[in-house]
Amino acid sequence: MVFHPLFVHLHIAFLLMAFLAMWYWLLKGLSSSVFEDRIYQFARACTWLGVVFVALSMAVGVRDGFAGRYAVWGGQQGGWLIVKASLASTLLIVYGFFLHLSSKKPRYLQEEPRLLAWCMLTQTAGMAIVVAITAIGTMLVYYPWSLPRFHM
Ligand code: HEM
Question: Which residues 6+ apart lie within 8 Å of 21 measured at CB?
Answer without folding.
Answer: 39, 40, 42, 43, 46
